[in-house]
């Protein structure tokens, strides 16, 4: 039996950086009788609770006319429409958080595979379509401004990797002579609104991790340069071979090359691969092949802390988590009743929706900063392969360890009392596969290693 292992990922905190959450479904979840609880089990108002725990900004998505879509329960969809977003904005503002508005320019979800325009714009082309994009963007800002909830950021599109405001599905790639002016129409509307109202709304473009490097260059070549923020989606499940360090390198490159603020606009991590709190299948069934954290509540937290530290250390301006409040309820979307994401929310569906440790991510920049674990401080050895054990040698005292299977199940542990510089982890009974070894240092720092057993 031998071990293949990856790089060391110390969990540390450094410079402050914006932390935000997407709460687009929260109103609909509460209408569907979903209940949020704090870590003690007390019922809480989700907006107030996210603010209390440290969220600085809330991302809200806006669909043009979601009522054009039927839910899986047979009723027109209303969540994500203008009135729902206005209500969410008021609740966000009342809780003391800023607002980031994501305009999808569609009647329902748009993403790298589809960028279908609103039905109201079918048949429009050329200047008529550009005028519709501009006018819609401006009117949305007017509605938000009129109730005192002007967004700090407005994203012109959502994950626009392969097209924007398309007439058909799926997307078939950019035609920059036509698509460049579409982006510019939205960006110009934000700038004109700011001039007319004395506001400072920042415009943003949103791409995915796999396209961002190439896409930013394409946008610049097409003359789309007047936006303020470049947002990135990064889900280990959808980008299984991308390491957190590579995300840091991407953020550093984009910041230096284009002079824009760079943020993670979406991320998500499963804390539990087991079946969820309802019959709606969860779509995050894994966390990729290289991220060194197990599918546990602590693993979700540690992933977010490491991602945030890496983004901020590389010049990034913030990290938003996608839909941490999408818990199971009677809410119906186009595909099911309940939630297909409760295993990646910030509330434990197996413990009556109590708050999870992932909320600690929102305290980044306010908790005590710890020094990084020095490179080479911890080494793993097969000891030897034939004796069924893994040896950990450290220059820093280890207070305990936990070993997790790939699905997040804890398979072994040793926690206190005391500490040691040498730890032996028994492996003879382990099946072939991937595991996660989490070390707890005496000073409170945690180190996670991804280990392959053959």
From TrEMBL:
Q: What is its EC number?
A: 3.2.1.89
- What Gene Ontology terms for biological process does this UniProt record contain? pectin catabolic process
Q: Which UniProt keywords apply?
A: Glycosidase, Hydrolase, Signal
This enzyme catalyses:
The enzyme specifically hydrolyzes (1->4)-beta-D-galactosidic linkages in type I arabinogalactans
What Gene3D superfamilies does this protein's entry cite?
Glycosidases
- One short Pfam name that applies is Glyco_hydro_53
The record's section on PANTHER family has: ARABINOGALACTAN ENDO-BETA-1,4-GALACTANASE A, ENDO-BETA-1,4-GALACTANASE
Q: Which family does it belong to?
A: Belongs to the glycosyl hydrolase 53 family.
Q: What is this protein called?
A: Arabinogalactan endo-beta-1,4-galactanase
Q: Which organism is it from?
A: Neolewinella xylanilytica
